[in-house]
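WARN retry 2 of 3 for item q-0093 after timeout on previous attempt; input resubmitted unchanged.
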Amino acid sequence: MKKIAIAVAALVAAAPSFADRGGPMKARLSGFQEVPVVVTSASGDFEARIADDEQSITYTLSYSGLQGQVRQAHIHVAQKAVNGAIVLWLCGTTQNPGPTGTQTCPQEGMVTGTLTAANLQAPGPQQVADFADVLD
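OK item q-0093 returned
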């Protein structure tokens, strides 16, 4: 069963392209970027923009072709080729709802939103202390 979390976790692999905060940051999501690699026809796109004041991130996540039920979508922070801690939730489901206020994931389509320091998950093994750490 393929989960949208698999595709969104691919953001970890795309993180180096997120260095320029002046424009939109984009990542094409595929199972190949997952750790370990997942063979799937599912794909997605993630686009994010960090606000000029660095207090929020607006995002659009779109995905299609999943073979199983969507469970959740979130962002991890870690070095390349490592599954890091979940730091920000994009959407959840009944099985994996995410923190209070997390929107519901559609089975296929698009999720948009704005993330702030209030959405940051508690520090985990990757030592993400605050929102600025996520942006870095």
